[in-house]
Design a protein that fits this description.
Layout (H helix, E strand, L loop, with lengths): L1 H19 L4 H30 L4 H23 L5 H21 L1 H8 L5 H7 L8
Length: 136
Protein backbone atom coordinates (compact mmCIF):
# COMPACT_ATOMS: atom_id res chain seq x y z
CA UNK A 1 0.00 0.00 0.00
CA UNK A 2 2.77 2.45 0.91
CA UNK A 3 4.74 1.55 -2.18
CA UNK A 4 1.66 2.10 -4.31
CA UNK A 5 1.33 5.61 -2.87
CA UNK A 6 5.03 6.20 -3.54
CA UNK A 7 4.55 5.07 -7.13
CA UNK A 8 1.66 7.51 -7.54
CA UNK A 9 3.80 10.37 -6.24
CA UNK A 10 6.74 9.43 -8.52
CA UNK A 11 4.39 9.21 -11.50
CA UNK A 12 2.81 12.60 -10.76
CA UNK A 13 6.21 14.28 -10.41
CA UNK A 14 7.48 12.68 -13.60
CA UNK A 15 4.33 13.59 -15.51
CA UNK A 16 4.58 17.21 -14.38
CA UNK A 17 8.28 17.36 -15.20
CA UNK A 18 7.91 15.85 -18.64
CA UNK A 19 4.95 18.02 -19.60
CA UNK A 20 6.10 21.37 -18.30
CA UNK A 21 9.85 21.06 -18.31
CA UNK A 22 10.44 18.74 -21.25
CA UNK A 23 12.97 21.04 -22.89
CA UNK A 24 15.54 20.09 -20.24
CA UNK A 25 17.28 16.80 -21.17
CA UNK A 26 18.81 16.52 -17.69
CA UNK A 27 15.34 16.50 -16.17
CA UNK A 28 14.24 13.75 -18.53
CA UNK A 29 17.24 11.68 -17.42
CA UNK A 30 16.33 12.23 -13.75
CA UNK A 31 12.73 11.18 -14.42
CA UNK A 32 13.89 8.05 -16.21
CA UNK A 33 16.29 7.18 -13.38
CA UNK A 34 13.47 7.71 -10.87
CA UNK A 35 11.29 5.36 -12.88
CA UNK A 36 14.01 2.69 -12.88
CA UNK A 37 14.38 3.08 -9.11
CA UNK A 38 10.64 2.76 -8.59
CA UNK A 39 10.37 -0.32 -10.83
CA UNK A 40 13.22 -1.93 -8.89
CA UNK A 41 11.53 -1.19 -5.56
CA UNK A 42 8.23 -2.58 -6.81
CA UNK A 43 9.87 -5.73 -8.13
CA UNK A 44 11.85 -6.33 -4.94
CA UNK A 45 8.80 -5.67 -2.81
CA UNK A 46 6.64 -8.07 -4.79
CA UNK A 47 9.36 -10.72 -4.77
CA UNK A 48 9.83 -10.37 -0.98
CA UNK A 49 6.10 -10.63 -0.38
CA UNK A 50 5.79 -13.66 -2.61
CA UNK A 51 8.75 -15.31 -0.83
CA UNK A 52 7.15 -14.65 2.57
CA UNK A 53 3.87 -16.16 1.40
CA UNK A 54 5.51 -19.10 -0.36
CA UNK A 55 7.58 -19.95 2.72
CA UNK A 56 4.48 -19.93 4.88
CA UNK A 57 2.71 -23.24 5.40
CA UNK A 58 -0.41 -21.42 6.48
CA UNK A 59 -3.19 -21.67 3.91
CA UNK A 60 -4.90 -18.60 5.42
CA UNK A 61 -1.79 -16.54 4.60
CA UNK A 62 -1.63 -17.92 1.08
CA UNK A 63 -5.34 -17.33 0.48
CA UNK A 64 -5.23 -13.77 1.83
CA UNK A 65 -2.22 -12.95 -0.37
CA UNK A 66 -3.80 -14.27 -3.55
CA UNK A 67 -7.09 -12.46 -2.87
CA UNK A 68 -5.16 -9.24 -2.23
CA UNK A 69 -3.27 -9.74 -5.50
CA UNK A 70 -6.49 -10.53 -7.36
CA UNK A 71 -8.14 -7.33 -6.09
CA UNK A 72 -5.08 -5.20 -6.89
CA UNK A 73 -4.85 -6.68 -10.40
CA UNK A 74 -8.54 -5.94 -10.99
CA UNK A 75 -8.01 -2.37 -9.77
CA UNK A 76 -5.14 -1.93 -12.27
CA UNK A 77 -7.23 -3.42 -15.05
CA UNK A 78 -10.16 -1.10 -14.36
CA UNK A 79 -7.94 1.97 -14.05
CA UNK A 80 -6.31 1.30 -17.40
CA UNK A 81 -9.62 0.53 -19.15
CA UNK A 82 -10.59 4.20 -19.32
CA UNK A 83 -14.22 3.47 -18.53
CA UNK A 84 -16.04 6.16 -16.60
CA UNK A 85 -18.16 5.85 -13.44
CA UNK A 86 -15.93 3.22 -11.87
CA UNK A 87 -15.06 5.10 -8.70
CA UNK A 88 -17.50 3.15 -6.55
CA UNK A 89 -16.22 -0.19 -7.83
CA UNK A 90 -12.59 0.92 -7.45
CA UNK A 91 -13.21 2.11 -3.89
CA UNK A 92 -14.87 -1.20 -3.05
CA UNK A 93 -11.99 -3.22 -4.54
CA UNK A 94 -9.43 -1.05 -2.74
CA UNK A 95 -11.23 -1.69 0.55
CA UNK A 96 -11.22 -5.44 -0.11
CA UNK A 97 -7.53 -5.42 -1.04
CA UNK A 98 -6.63 -3.40 2.06
CA UNK A 99 -8.64 -5.79 4.24
CA UNK A 100 -6.65 -8.73 2.86
CA UNK A 101 -3.40 -6.84 3.42
CA UNK A 102 -4.34 -6.18 7.05
CA UNK A 103 -5.20 -9.86 7.45
CA UNK A 104 -1.77 -10.78 6.06
CA UNK A 105 -0.02 -8.48 8.52
CA UNK A 106 -1.88 -10.14 11.38
CA UNK A 107 -1.31 -13.70 10.12
CA UNK A 108 2.26 -13.50 8.88
CA UNK A 109 5.24 -12.05 10.72
CA UNK A 110 7.33 -12.36 7.52
CA UNK A 111 4.75 -10.37 5.58
CA UNK A 112 4.56 -7.73 8.31
CA UNK A 113 8.36 -7.39 8.39
CA UNK A 114 8.57 -7.10 4.61
CA UNK A 115 5.89 -4.42 4.63
CA UNK A 116 7.57 -2.46 7.45
CA UNK A 117 10.59 -1.63 5.33
CA UNK A 118 8.37 0.78 3.38
CA UNK A 119 6.83 2.47 6.41
CA UNK A 120 9.82 4.40 7.74
CA UNK A 121 9.36 8.15 8.08
CA UNK A 122 11.64 11.04 8.89
CA UNK A 123 10.26 10.89 12.43
CA UNK A 124 11.59 7.32 12.75
CA UNK A 125 15.03 8.47 11.63
CA UNK A 126 14.97 11.39 14.05
CA UNK A 127 13.89 9.14 16.90
CA UNK A 128 16.89 6.85 16.31
CA UNK A 129 19.51 9.59 16.20
CA UNK A 130 21.63 10.24 19.23
CA UNK A 131 22.41 13.72 20.45
CA UNK A 132 24.80 15.52 18.07
CA UNK A 133 24.06 13.07 15.21
CA UNK A 134 22.63 13.94 11.83
CA UNK A 135 21.16 11.85 9.03
CA UNK A 136 22.36 12.43 5.51
Amino acid sequence: MYLVKTAEIFNNINEFALIYLSKNPELSAICYNDELLLKGLLLNSERSLLDAVTNSNDTAVTTAYWYMKLYRDKISELQSSGLEDQNEILDSLETLANDQERKLVILSADFANTRKQFENTWEDVLENLSKNEAAI
